[in-house]
Amino acid sequence: MEELCYYEVLRVSKDSSVTEIKKAYRKLAIKYHPDKNPGNKEAEDKFKVINEAYAVLSDEEKRSVYDMYGKDALNGGASNQGFGNMDDIMDVFNSMFGDAFGFGSNSQSRGSSMPYPLDIEIETTLEFNEAVFGCEKELDITYKEPCSDCNGSGAKNGAFATCDYCKGHGQVMMRQGFMTFAQECPKCNGKGKSAKEICSTCSGVGGVNKEETITVTIPAGVNSGNRLRVPTKGNIPNSGHRGDLYIHFEIEDDEHFVRDGDDIYIEVPVFFTQILLQEEIKVPSLEGELTIKLTSKTRDKEHFIFKNSGVPNVNRPSIKGRFIAQVKVVYPKKLDTLQKDLVTRLQDSFGIESKPQKNIFENTFSRIKKWVKSK
After folding, report:
1. Which of 254, 255, 257 shows the shortest CA–CA distance to 325?
2. What is the pLDDT at residue 68?
3. Which CATH class is domain 257-330?
């Protein structure tokens, strides 16, 4: 069997940054998360491989070893790192992202009497300004309510039988090398029982889909990777105590502004003559117009920093990041005859100051001539 390439698993290139790898992992992990694919063995296997790949590529040392020597060089093989156990994988998943994905915990979704989790998670994309300033957003969501034909059990007429795979224990023992682990039964999802016959109305899910349009207030300062909890907008169980909705955000880029956390950068093109003339330049910011004063010492990529003029911190709105204007010095691509004459006259007007290399290297040229003659 051909060995999977971790970069191909996460759909990233070998020169991808850790941030790009994490972003790719987040999207794939959400797509194949067991709570979004109940009973789907193929999705569960993909989720395991995705986590295995991320655990290696997000670690600088492991990634270096993998790039040089391959999978087998990682502690006797990455397959021996404990990724066969779904509980271990979920521990890794939660330790990396906490509850940022908004999925209910495994114990909640699998240990409850409901065959589907209470909490649901969706992704939504915000425009740059919507994220920076906050907004109200209408979202179409799909949630589940208990199937009336099987009373939310997923089994026709609510009839269950003891699981023949785990014999009602809810766990099976798995051997890995010389270690033995207890693993949740993959057939009954740890319940110890399975439906005698799947409910045809809900296809064994236990719930039927319902549509709803809700209005959500998005706070100023949200960023890609943040999540927002909306109480009582999740799935509905038999008890009637509705779960929560978790919204995961992706933020669109802006044409001119670049965001880094709560800081905002803007590149300001400046013609070289503006520096010589020490002009004042107006630049757009999140708060309107700002002024930067050029000096004869202004250099390419120099930063002009305006404190407390960036994005409000989503957790502490009274605190804002910085607004940073980065200078980009622009030179003419070519000169016509008149321009060349003007530049020559300008250079000549500075006298010896206009050719600093002449004095610096004059001695060096003389020394090199002596070295050549002495050979």
Report:
1. 257
2. 80
3. mainly beta
**CATH 1.10.287.110 is the classification of domain 1-98:** yes
Residues in the chain: 375
The one-letter amino acid code at 118 reads: L
Write the DSSP string, 84-145. T-HHHHHHHHHHHHTTTT-PPPHHHHHHSSSSS-S-EEEEEEE-HHHHHH-EEEEEEEEEEE
160 - beta bridge partners?
Answer: 195
Q: How far is CA 241 from CA 39, 205, 232, 238, 254, in A?
A: 24, 18, 8, 8, 41
Determine the residue type at 87.
D
The structure tokens listed for 27 are 């999207």
The mean pLDDT of the chain is 84
- Give the residue from 211, 213, 247, 209 showing the smallest Cα distance to 230: 247
- Contact between 151 and 166 under an 8 Å Cβ cutoff? The reply is no
Residue type, 331: Y
Looking up tokens 């006259």, which residue turns up? 345
Is the pLDDT score of 79 beyond 60? no
- Residue with more model confidence, 204 or 140: 140
First CA to last CA distance, the chain = 66
The residue extents of the domains of the chain are 1-98, 257-330, 337-374
**Total Cβ atoms within 10 A of residue 140:** 9
What does residue 30 show for φ and ψ, rounded to 5 degrees? -65, -45
Per-residue pLDDT tens digits for 270-296: 999 999 999 999 999 999 999 999 999
| pLDDT tens per residue, range 221-273 | 999 989 999 999 999 988 888 999 999 999 999 999 999 999 999 999 999 99
